[in-house]
């Protein structure tokens, strides 16, 4: 027979266990990670902004959402190419920080920017309360570096920001795609990158593949609270074509139809390169495009040609290129 005193003690113990495992307790003892819901944007340096705009606008069919000028100047510093209400591309009208790499930074959307600061500080990252703040676009953001030195930005969009004000606008039917599928970037130490994106940020590994069956080439990691993902581009030797490795992938329902649309546009003659559809190691059809600076833009279908998931590679990654 269970006495009232025993039942009370049992319930109290259960309550303590639930409290210890709750997010509220985690925020007090070890701060909980806020939600990372998807890819906000990617930034690229461009050597010729008008040519880059022709590529994104005339050829790929996107609209320029807005632009920011340089300090004390009327010259455009950043042009914003809208993909959808939550994703865009930033074109920096300035020389690259680390040439020949034209990728400036990655950015992920979070639901609470201050909670993200607190969480990363608890993990040992030097994120001071004043690091970042309200941006010129009217949102809250700050950035840190990943193990390879890539700038990783986190943003919380605000109702009064430029992105919110542009909701439902600048989305022409000419857009060749309506969503960023993933971002690919060079990774020299897969273990450190998995620790950063996986253990710290909470990304989940979804697939591994390789052009060589004896050595791994790619690792896909999905954001913890959404469907977008990043692709680690592993390498053995220092790459000579950063723009091929550091790329953006846009999802399309039918690559062949997308190619036909692009080839029918007047800007295709200016583009001047063959559009070759191929089936990747992941068994998804894709086509590679290149902006005027050689940065790769990949159009990819979400489904495999077989209709079944492609098994992950079991090959080992290349040896790390840095500690």
How many structural domains does the protein architecture include?
2
Give the mean pLDDT. Answer: 90
Structural class: alpha+beta
SS strand fraction: 25-35%
Query: Uncertain regions: pLDDT < 50 for 5+ in a row?
Result: 5-27
Describe this structure in words.
By secondary structure, the protein is an alpha+beta fold. It has two domains: 36-165, 2,3-Dihydroxybiphenyl 1,2-Dioxygenase, domain 1; 180-300, 2,3-Dihydroxybiphenyl 1,2-Dioxygenase, domain 1 (Roll). It is 24% helix and 30% strand. It is built from nine helices and 16 strands. The chain has helices spanning 4-20, 23-29, 49-59, 113-122, 162-165, 190-200, 242-245, 255-263, 267-271; strands spanning 36-45, 63-69, 76-84, 87-92, 103-110, 133-134, 140-145, 151-156, 180-187, 204-209, 218-222, 229-234, 247-251, 278-279, 285-290, 296-300. The strands form two sheets. It has an eight-stranded mixed sheet. The radius of gyration is 22 Å and the shape is globular. It starts with a helix and ends in a 23-residue tail after the last strand. Mean pLDDT is 90; it is low at 5-27.
Outline:
The N and C termini lie far apart (62 Å).
Distinctive features:
323 residues; alpha+beta; 2,3-Dihydroxybiphenyl 1,2-Dioxygenase, domain 1; 2 domains; 8-stranded mixed beta sheet; 9 helices; 16 strands
């Amino acid at each position: 027979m269970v006495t009232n005193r025993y039942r009370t003690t049992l319930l109290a113990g259960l309550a303590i266990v639930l409290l210890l495992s709750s997010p509220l307790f985690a925020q007090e003892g070890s701060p909980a990670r806020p939600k990372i819901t998807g890819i906000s944007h990617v930034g690229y340096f461009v050597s010729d902004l008008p040519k880059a705009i022709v590529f994104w606008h005339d050829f790929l069919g996107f609209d320029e959402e807005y632009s920011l000028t340089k300090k004390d100047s009327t010259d455009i510093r950043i042009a914003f190419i809208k993909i959808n209400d939550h994703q865009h591309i930033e074109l920096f009208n300035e020389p690259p920080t680390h040439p020949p790499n034209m990728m400036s930074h990655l950015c992920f959307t979070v639901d609470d920017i201050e909670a993200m600061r607190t969480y990363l500080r608890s993990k040992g990252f030097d994120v001071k309360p004043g690091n970042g703040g309200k941006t010129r676009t009217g949102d809250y953001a700050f950035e840190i570096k990943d193990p390879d030195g890539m700038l990783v930005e986190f943003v919380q969009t605000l109702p009064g920001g430029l992105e919110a004000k542009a909701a439902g606008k600048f989305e022409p039917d000419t857009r060749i795609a309506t969503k960023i599928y993933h971002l690919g970037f060079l990774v020299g130490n897969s273990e450190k990158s998995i620790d950063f994106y996986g253990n710290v940020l909470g990304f989940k590994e979804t697939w591994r593949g390789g052009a060589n069956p004896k050595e791994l080439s790619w690792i896909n990691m999905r954001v913890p609270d959404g469907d977008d993902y990043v692709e680690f581009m592993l390498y053995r030797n220092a790459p000579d074509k950063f723009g091929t490795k550091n790329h953006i992938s846009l999802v399309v329902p039918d690559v062949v139809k997308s190619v036909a649309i692009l080839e029918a546009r007047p800007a295709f003659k200016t583009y001047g390169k063959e559009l070759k559809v191929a089936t990747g190691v992941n068994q998804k059809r894709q086509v590679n495009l290149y902006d005027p600076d050689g940065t790769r833009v990949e159009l990819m279908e979400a489904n495999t040609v077989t209709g079944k998931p492609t098994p992950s590679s079991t090959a080992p990654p290349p040896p790390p290129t840095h500690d």
